[in-house]
Design a protein that fits this description.
Elements lengths: L2 E8 L2 H13 L6 E5 L6 H12 L14 E6 L2 E7 L7 H6 L1 H7 L1 E5 L13 E7 L6 E7 L6 H7 L1
Parallel strand pairs: 2-5, 2-6, 4-5
Antiparallel strand pairs: 1-7, 3-4, 6-7
Helix pairs in contact: 1-2
Bound molecules: adenosine-5'-triphosphate and magnesium ion.
The site of magnesium ion has 5 residues, from helix 2.
Length: about 160
């Protein structure tokens, strides 16, 4: 079970990027950020903003839709960006090395419902929903680990 931490309205892509950078600054190896929400909800935009703020050397951050994972060298060490939409079988997750990465790297995972029973207990769950205005998104933050309590402060600041 995970617990509700906060709900925020992100009024524009820039707003989402700002929140992403604030979260990114606090990340450490072993942290897993799960990004849920429908197609076009803003998961990749959020992940790209996190990654670009942490990269050691500037580079493009493509959506991992077809590669399933992209890895980056960042100021927080290795960072994995996964998009599991096209995952066929959970056994592929072990082959990809994602289960090991959950231990040692910073991991951002789109379509995390595909993880099933290997969903890390210590992960934070971010759920993006389209808002009434074109550029608004509603973000719900849930976690069971106290690790993520700081997000409540960011969300209400
Ligand atoms: N407040 C906002 N936050 C994030 N993205 C926004 C916002 N407003 C508009 N957008 C736009 O919505 C789109 C979100 O696309 P994105 O690729 O991030 O979606 P996604 O959730 O990763 O979808 P998919 O499931 O296809 O991977 C982008 O074009 C982005 O510019
Ligand atoms: Mg995406």
């Amino acid at each position: 079970m995970h617990h509700f931490l906060a709900e925020i309205t992100l009024s524009s892509p820039e707003d989402t990027a700002l929140f992403a950078r604030q979260l990114a600054a606090k990340l450490a190896p072993g942290d897993v950020v799960l990004l849920s929400g429908g197609i076009g909800a803003g998961k990749t935009h959020f992940a790209r903003s996190v990654i670009q703020s942490l990269l050691l050397v500037p580079e493009d951050v493509p959506s991992p839709t077809f590669t399933l994972v992209q890895t980056y060298d960042t100021i927080k060490g290795e960072l994995w960006h996964a998009d599991l939409y096209r995952l066929n079988d959970p056994s592929e997750l072990v082959e990809l090395g994602l289960t090991d990465a959950f231990e040692d790297a910073v991991c951002l995972v789109e379509w995390p419902d595909r993880l099933g029973s290997i969903t890390p207990q210590n992960a934070v769950h971010l759920t993006f929903k389209l808002g009434d205005e074109d550029d608004a998104r509603h973000l719900t933050i849930q976690a069971s680990s106290p690790r993520w309590a700081f997000l409540k402060d960011i969300a209400t600041s």
